[in-house]
Design brief:
With 44 residues, the chain is an alpha+beta fold. The protein has a domain at 7-31. The chain has one helix at residues 5-14, and strands spanning 18-23, 26-30. InterPro entries: HicA_mRNA_interferase, HicA_sf.
Amino acid sequence: MPLTDKEMVKLVLENGWVEIRQRGSRHHFKKEVFLSCHDFSSWK
């Protein structure tokens, strides 16, 4: 059985996405990703 719109929005929000805006039935989401960078030249 397919998901309803409300179920899909709930699932997306539970998985770390943030709703940034909504216009009518269109929802816009974003997910921030944090990357850790290391200076590998110091590893010897």
